[in-house]
């Protein structure tokens, strides 16, 4: 309960001139590019016994993209956290390696790596645009209601397009298909951050007290729940359960961080429980996912061969501790969605528990840096935005990694940066750009005026 | 608010811990059971992702591998598939492995630990050990002679080296090309369906997996039991045997196809194959003596592996005296594999010692170093040396002046026994023709080859089916092939 000591541990030493650490960022980016190129070459060596001819071009392309991004950060966000960009480059580069590796399996259909490289380029371009154009991280707060309208529109849009593989989450225009829900989550995070920071006081006002829980009042509960119900309702109609789970978790975390009320968590868990049971019972698609989670080998026992979850588990198990080595696993047995939803199984099989742990730690570092920026910031909007973006990444990694490893029911979702999918890569680059902007504000040496007017402090918090 | 941010961060950290713990569960704790799950195709993929080791006959490879390019990559090829199918079996992507391909799979696929030059090294590097080669005891000449002799008729031949137990020939006819089953395509599934539907059962390894009533060839065992028990001491002394002979405790009588069987000596009765004399001898020896003698020759053994499992040859252990009498002439429930009857001839030819039959001479690793070998081992002392001498006199008389003259080889001492086994309901089935024999090389005191031949020819005339007519010439050519070769 000692917010005082927690805050002081986080505050930088008052007198020291904060380091920009752009040199660190540059050398880490170089390392990330080299690791990716090495992975690319290793795939070729394992599969064909020769370094693939495109290795130099791939390395040069990734390097140029990373250096351009680095230049933008150096120019416009010089105090940004030096770990964010290198981690994003490494994850994206390694994702390209995994997709290229799976492209070599004829059973998995056509090549996907070139398209993914184009999408990555677009993602980096948007990253640069956000870093250059968005001068103040509080800028998006002004567009809260435009954001939420846009988010809802994006989520409703796929209903008018045909379902692909049982999920109505795609929009297909002129041969390009993308998932609007991916973009919607950033917009929703912006809206939640803006709305919650503006209405914190009212939301934190305690309503009825039930047992040991402080429930919020109905007056403020209404609009928030309405937004949430609409978004989740749309997603259930579209059968995209991973994203609805993500939105729900994001919503509860941000609400809790904004108000500090455990009652919100209770309400959230209650709603989640009711929703989960209802959907699990009524919706056959979800019901089968739950059955697969509880009994991943049921299809084997029934003589129908292993299902995707079982194949995924086999892939992870084959990797063991050290992995088979890039290009030497058999994760292509997973078949459909091996490059997207199940891409982590390839990483787990070919890099083993060691490589998988390294990947998880990279994500954890990204998330931790997001939280750290949130803690260092003084305005509630920036703080909530940082927490929200970091939580999106954390929840997304958990939902999909837990799904493919049979920890929770499988729900289709892209592993950030790794998985095939243009919308996902582009969105993740925007998330990282926003985190760069937020961290730049957090680490920038404070001008004379310390706390902005939009900083209504609770008595528990201390000004710096 | 800071406190809540920290709580949220702590929650995310818990998610990370959950993922890592779960990863440890999947990749370490349960990895073994997942990797061993029969539905996990990685087992098959690993088996076929490199050229398989080969099976060799007389130093020549009778198998090979070709790159099929599929996920189960290397396909098995066979140099002379139908000839060696009863030895090699098949190695199929879809239908698994049989016979030597099955029992030696660890060696051929490179999974056997003894192939590794440095222990544990492959576990760490995950490099796959190249497959080792399996050198068989088969003699190419004997195998070909037997296969040619059967000429597509249904039947089987087994030949062994009596002194060591080395199996020199295992032929089953009609045969099939195991290469048809390599692969995963519709050709493969079609071939499998066709082979299984074929009423001639080409995939049945008749030499070791099919049992037949041994008929009169079983009289060798009965004679051995009578000599060992002291029931008979002088081969030339007349026995007290009526013709026809009424089975003890019944009103059923049996007769003979040959004449002169009443009170015939064992020598003459064996030479012309008198049922009455040997049925009575068996009944006189009794159930215990007959069972003991049959088992000393290898009957009722369910554990014989060469290393492919050999079907159990049967001699009932609980019977009434009349059933013992019938069993003693190779009828009733008595059945034997061709290999079993070759073992009977081998034990007699080897002076009474029955060697354990074996098919794998040695195993070499990919670089040619021998990593395992088989040493000859005694299976049983079937009969005493003295009894073996007398049995040899009986069997050699069959070839020199009895029913088996078709097996005679000039300048070589050959002993044999014919058999014609009735089967089916009320013996309406086509009889099987048997011939078992051994041959001593010129100047040798013990046999260097023993053979058993069965011909089950449904097409032939009933009268034509006889051990001496159909089976003995095949046995002779196999023996000649072995004698010429070594």
From TrEMBL, chain A:
Entry's localization field? Membrane
Q: Name one Pfam family in it.
A: FTSW_RODA_SPOVE
Keyword Membrane found: yes
Recorded GO terms, molecular function? lipid-linked peptidoglycan transporter activity
Supply one GO BP term: regulation of cell shape
Q: Which sequence ranges are marked TM in the entry? A: 23-41, 53-71, 83-102, 114-134, 143-164, 184-206, 218-235, 241-257, 264-282, 351-371, 383-405, 417-436
Sorted keywords for this record are: Cell cycle, Cell division, Cell shape, Membrane, Transmembrane, Transmembrane helix
Major localization listed first in the record, in broad terms: membrane
The record describes its membrane topology as: Multi-pass membrane protein
This protein's GO CC annotations:
cell division site; plasma membrane
State the source organism's domain of life: Bacteria
Region Disordered: which residues?
Answer: 445-464
Keyword presence, Iron-sulfur: no
Q: What is this protein called?
A: Cell division protein FtsW, lipid II flippase
Q: Which organism is it from?
A: Actinacidiphila alni
Q: What is the lineage of its organism?
A: Bacteria, Bacillati, Actinomycetota, Actinomycetes, Kitasatosporales
UniProtKB/TrEMBL annotation, chain B:
One of the record's GO cellular component terms? plasma membrane
Q: Which residues form the Penicillin binding protein A dimerisation domain?
A: 52-134
What is the phylogenetic placement of the source species in the record? Bacteria, Bacillati, Actinomycetota, Actinomycetes, Kitasatosporales
> Mind telling me what this protein is named?
Peptidoglycan glycosyltransferase
Where does the secretion signal sit in this chain?
A: 1-23
User: A Gene Ontology molecular-function term?
Assistant: peptidoglycan L,D-transpeptidase activity
Q: Could you tell me which residue ranges the Penicillin-binding protein transpeptidase domain spans?
A: 155-480
What UniProt keywords are attached to this protein's entry? Signal, Transferase
Q: Name one Pfam family in it.
A: Transpeptidase
Biological processes, Gene Ontology terms: cell wall organization
